[in-house]
Every structure is written in structure tokens, then in C-alpha cells.
Specification:
mainly alpha, 2 domains, two-stranded antiparallel sheet, two-stranded antiparallel ribbon, 7 helices, elongated
């Protein structure tokens, strides 16, 4: 079970992002943040709502517990938090998708999600293959012919003769 990973994606209609939807919820409830608040290193309300929606989705805490924590961290009333939680249930949670990935041993995930098998070779066999590749490139004339067909060097007209 240790190798099983899950990825969480938000697929909203109209190609909206999670931040846009959360920002709409916050502004509707009068909790939008200014850039000054974010620059002063205050906790982001967007991040708190995002985390709360994931906790509610996974059902790690009860709805009442999440509401109490949001009320404390957002410094707002319980009524506003109940509205926020209700909107999370309607506007965010239905659009969460979970993909379970079970990586194969001795594999490496590519950025696009495919699984590539690593080829483990014997070092000696790999050395033989490389040596054969070098020998064939020399016999094909890539190195040998270029050296033989090279015209003799001309005398440098700018060089002074040595007496």
C-alpha cells in the first residue's frame, strides 16, 4: 500500500481554476483579501478554504469541526462560515476527481503520467555494444577517410622564415 499514490484534480466547467471559484466564495461572503494582506504574510484565506474543501471531501473531520476551525482562522461569524461550507459543498466538492496511481517497481513516471520501464543492463554487455558502435563508425569512413583525404597543409604566407 505504500506505493499507491493519489492525485487530486479540480475540473470545473468553463475552465475555471480553483482559485477563481474560492475567490468568488470569499468575495460573496465579504472575506476577500487585498494584496497588502498577502504581502504582510497573513495567512491566505484562499489556502484555508482550499484545505477545508479537501478535508471535507476526504471526510477527515466533521463538518462542525471544520466550521469551527474556519471561523477561528478567518475571524468571522459562524453564520458566514456555514454559508462558506455550504458553498464549498455545492461549488467545489462535486468537481474534485481523485486519480489513484500505483507505480510499477523499477519504473519512472514521466510528466505526462505514463510509466516507463527502466532497462537494467549488464555493464559489460553495455561496454561491448558501445565498442561495436565505435568500430562500425570508424570502418564506415567517418574518421579514417577524413584523415586520409585531407590535403597537405599549405605554407603560411604570413609566417617569417627562420634563418
Amino acid at each position: 500500500m505504500d506505493n499507491i499514490r493519489s492525485t487530486i484534480d479540480f475540473s470545473f466547467p468553463d475552465d475555471k481554476s480553483v482559485v477563481e471559484v474560492i475567490n468568488e466564495i470569499l468575495k460573496k461572503n465579504g472575506l476577500g483579501q487585498s494584496f497588502e494582506d498577502l504581502e504582510n504574510h497573513k495567512e491566505s484565506n484562499i489556502k484555508m478554504i482550499h484545505d477545508a474543501s479537501l478535508v471535507l471531501f476526504h471526510k477527515r473531520m466533521s463538518e462542525d469541526t471544520v466550521s469551527a476551525l474556519l471561523a477561528k482562522h478567518l475571524n468571522t461569524s459562524a453564520e458566514k462560515v456555514k454559508n462558506i461550507v455550504a458553498e464549498i459543498k455545492v461549488k467545489i466538492i462535486p468537481y474534485i476527481t481523485v486519480s489513484i496511481v500505483n507505480p510499477v517497481k523499477k519504473s519512472m513516471d514521466t510528466p505526462d503520467g505514463r510509466v516507463m520501464e527502466r532497462k537494467i543492463k549488464n555493464v559489460e554487455e553495455n561496454a561491448k555494444e558501445l565498442k561495436e558502435q565505435r568500430e562500425t563508425s570508424v570502418t564506415k569512413g567517418t574518421i579514417g577517410e577524413n584523415m586520409q583525404n585531407k590535403s597537405p597543409a599549405r605554407a603560411d604566407r604570413y609566417r617569417e622564415p627562420i634563418d
